[in-house]
Structures are given as C-alpha cells and as structure tokens.
Amino acid sequence: MSEAIDWKSRYRDFLHESEAKEHHLRAHAQALRRLLLRLCELSAGRDPLLDTQLDGIAAAARENAGIAALDALADVLADYALQPEHEPGRWNESIAAMDQLLRSLSPADSGSPLAEDLLRSLPGVATDNAFAQVVLGTLDIVREQSERLTHDHMETSSLLEQVTGKLDDVASFLAGASDERRTSLDDAETLNVRVLAEVQDLSDQVREASDISPLKSLIGARVETISAQVRDFREREEQRLTEYNSRNDAMRQRVIDLERQAHKLRQDLEEERQRARLDPLTGLANRASFDERFSEAMERHKRFGTPVSLLLWDIDRFKNINDTCGHRAGDRVLREVARCFTSRLRTTDFVARIGGEEFVALLVGTPADQALRVAEDLRSGVSGLKLHFRGTPVPVTASCGITEFIVGDSTTSAFDRADAALYRAKDGGRNLCVAAA
C-alpha cells in the first residue's frame, strides 16, 4: 500500500514538473515569435523579394505555425540568401565602382573639391541614403563639367568666327588688290597705246611733210595732250597707290591682331592641356598623366628590358586628419608630402597624385632593391615633416607598396602587385615600405 502511494506521489510530482516546463517553453516560444516579428519589421523595405519572404514568416509567427511550416520558410529564405545577387560584398562592389567613376571624373574636373570630398566620404557610406547623396554629388560634377565644356565650346566658336571674319577680310583685300592691279595695268596699256598712236601719227606727218615748220604747233599741241594724259595717269596711280598702302596698313594690323589672337589661343589651349594633366592642389601629374607614362614605361620595359620600379603610396590615417583638423589641414598635408617626394626624387623619376591621399612614383632604370632604399628615404622624409595646424602638431606618415616590372607584365598586373604590397604595409602597422613578393 505504501509503494502505491509513493508511485502516485512521484507521478504527481513529474506531472507538475512537466507542466512547469511546458509553460516555460510556451513562454520562451512566444518571446521568440515576438522577436521574429520585430526582426521582420526591421528588415522590411530592403528588397521586394525579401519582403515577400518576410511577410510569410511574420504571418506564420502570428498564426503560431508549426515547426514544419517554419522549417519550410527557413529553407526558402536560405535559398534566397544564396542567390548571386544577394551575395555579401555587392555593396562593396558598388562603392568600388563609384570610387573608380569619381577618380576618372576628378582629373577631367582638374581635381574638383567636390569629387575629393565624395571620395573621402565613400569609405563611410553604409546606407542607401548616403550612397544616393554620393550619386547626386557625382551628377553635380558631371553637370558642372558639361556646362564648362559648353562654355569653352562657345568661346572657341566665337573666336573661330572672329578668325574667319578676319580671313574673309584678308581674302577680300587680296581680291581687291588683284582688281586694282589689273585696272592699273589696263590703264597703263591704254595710255601706252595712245602715246604710241600719237607718236606714230606725228612720225607719219613728218615724213609726208616737205616743210615741218607748220607742224611745230601741231606737235606741241600733241605733246601737251600726251603730257596731260601722262600726268592724269600718274595722279590716278598715285591716288590708287595711296589707297592701296592705306588698306595694306590696315590689313597688316589685322593680320598682326589675328596672329596675336592665334598665339593666345595656342597658349590657352596649352595651359588647358597642362591643367588637364596636372593635379591643381599639389602641382604633381594627375591620374591621366600617370596612366600615359605608366604605359610608356611598360612598353619600354618590354622592348628593351629596362628595369622599372613602381612605388604606390598612401598617407596613413588621412581621414582622421581631415576629421580632426579639417580639410584645409588635409590639403596642406597633401602639398607637403608632394613637395617631399619631388625634392628627394631624381628629375628623371616620375611622381603623380592619382586620387585622394594616394601617390605613385615610377623609377625607370631602378631595380626593386634600389627602389626599396629610395622608398625608405621618402618614407623617412614624410615622417619627419613638422606640420602644425592652429598650434597643434599634425603627425604624418605614409605606407608604400613596391614592385619591379617582370617578364610578361602588364600595367594592371604590376599595379595590382604594388597595391597588394601596400595593403601588407598597412596591415603590418603602417609607416612601412613593403616590396612585392
């Protein structure tokens, strides 16, 4: 009897314990369902296809769907997450594409401050709204370039119209001069015919006359007539010559003005070409100029085997300088680093600013071991810059990736090696020079 009572007591305790556990599990499941609903709400609006899946999950959670239904929804969501367009990194690819676009626009815009600001802001872009702001800023740059090109086109067209007008004047002058010359020749020929005719007539009369005394007065009258015709011809020629000289002087001045304007146009075009190839902030060559020189150096290496080393630089923690001290301090840092590079490199070396805080140097005739020593000298020079902004010291260091052109190289492969070496320098603590393996 006592054993039966003990069994009943144990069963009763087990039942109470099971009910308590069931109540706890139900409460836990309800909390998880509420959390799932909240996650669905927070994730909504990112993608229409994802929203459809989230709506199904939320509905299942509200209806207390069973485990099988939730597992099925989880499998569908897993399949959705594995689709290529939803792979991790697609946002990074968008940022990289926008970075490339802005860098291509910056040289054409002569180092637009807006492009520089957008490039600096790209690493911090983490939302659709922030990325949209970058896109709108890029649109402003394109619009500004288009307006400037239209303005330049209008100025060039106006100048060409002026040049065409002056050339038309020159053509008219030459045509007029030709007509004047032809008229002068015709008048001279007419006068010559008249004089010859008069002389011939007098000669005939002299031969036919037995006494020339009566002819003296006739000859004198004829000679006077001829002299008058000659004087009249000379006066017309002198007047014609005076007018011709006056027009010639005017045309000479027009030609001088035209040459002066053409010279100024050549100067303006050359200055514009130079501005398009130089970074306006540092005075170094820009990305377009570097790309051209890079290709030339690669071709020379392939043809003659000339050793060429590429040094890719990045100023360490440059964003912190801008955020802490402002863009004016950042601009000064860029100028001082550029001055340090140009003062320590040979005149035969090529250095350029290719965007933001990135610089590059091409050392023709320099193998990798020597290039590493040059890079260390430049790195030391940068770290030794004594810069202050509003009384506050601004420490500056730079990291460098180095590579030497090799057989079968291309500009892309060489640049990628230098870039990989630069990343190793950054990962190694910065303020380092690392040669590509």
Question: What can you tell me about this protein's structure?
Answer:
It is a single chain. The radius of gyration is 45 Å and the shape is elongated. It has helices at residues 2-43, 48-62, 67-81, 90-108, 113-121, 128-208, 215-277, 287-304, 318-325, 327-344, 368-383, 411-427; strands spanning 308-315, 350-355, 358-364, 388-389, 392-393, 398-404, 433-435. It is built from 12 helices and 7 strands. α1 (2-43) packs antiparallel against α2 (48-62). Mean pLDDT is 76; it is low at 81-90. It is an alpha+beta fold. The longest helix has 81 residues, at 128-208. The strands form 2 sheets. Strands 2-3-1-6-7 form a 5-stranded mixed sheet, sandwiched between helices. It has a two-stranded antiparallel sheet with strand order 4-5. It has 3 domains: 2-86; 90-277, no CATH class; 287-435, Alpha-Beta Plaits (2-Layer Sandwich), CATH 3.30.70.
Describe, in short, the structure shown.
The protein has 437 residues and is an alpha+beta fold. It has 12 helices and 7 strands.
Topology:
Blueprint: H1 2-43, H2 48-62, H3 67-81, H4 90-108, H5 113-121, H6 128-208, H7 215-277, H8 287-304, E1 308-315, H9 318-325, H10 327-344, E2 350-355, E3 358-364, H11 368-383, E4 388-389, E5 392-393, E6 398-404, H12 411-427, E7 433-435
Parallel strand pairs: 6-7
Antiparallel strand pairs: 1-3, 1-6, 2-3, 4-5
